Amino acid sequence: MPAAAQLSIAATASYSFAHFVVGHQVPLLAITVCLSSLGFVRDARPKRVLETAVGLAIGVALAEVMLVLAGSGVWQILVALFSTLLIARLANAAPAVAVAATAQSAIVLLIQLPAGGTWARSVDGFIGGGVALLATALVPRDPRRAAIRDADRVFAGLRLGIDDTARALRTADRGTASAALAGLRDLQPAIVDWTATLDSAVAIARVSPFLRRRLPELVAQRRLLDGIDLAVRSMRTIARRAEALAGDGAPRPELAELLQAVGSATALLGRGVRDPASIGPAKEDLVLIARRLDPRLITPEASVTASVITVLVRPVVVDLAVAAGATAEQIRAELPDLA
Fold this sequence. Notes:
single chain, mainly alpha, 15 helices, 0% strand, elongated
């Protein structure tokens, strides 16, 4: 709904300016360029909107030039579309922008010349792009809800992966460990979505006077995302090792208890996305866990292979603690010396 509202308001404003202020009777391209520049997409960064608007304006201008120099016809359409595709693709790395620019070029070539003259459609295209760029700041989408939803998905998946790995170690169930590894691997698209949403939110907050006060909150969430991304990668390594260990059929309740403690701290950290007051206690729990991460303490009688799990938990705890606001040096200083 926020995206739909922004698109509708911006397109109407673009049409109104072109029609009532500039005097164009049917400013079709003011609407189409505005809508295409903003897009119904997750990435609403001003930079992306600007790049798209410029690409679309290039398509319109090239078509206008073709009409002036060579008139209209089948071969003119071929040359204009081919040129627009190449130039727009070189000007913007996104293939979708090149295609959209070419579509605008086709509209110019096919619709009847407007009353405003040959270059009226180019003017409409620039109006649409300019209004789209202004809309990112003056009628911004508030992406915080989407970022929180993405964060919830990632934290839920990470907590499930940790719990499944702990259960696999407790019961020596290789199938559970395999499921944990698969679930952790499947988290990557959710992490990519969260990254795109959050980068867009930060970029919009920097230019929008209405969202600028949210910038510190969004930057803190970006730090949280970075730590969680690294923790998920480390947990995949642990899940793979747990899968291998489960093959001998020996339960390892001590390692399971350690991972459950990490999972509880992760859940508390996840609640911090909505309630920042939870981040402090999560960091304290992670510090306490870090102080225990010595294989000689956790599994004194275990083999070297089993003891590696405790060693592998150390970077997970460091990454989670950094996500909670600690520095890497601070949390590493809490880790027992393995020498």
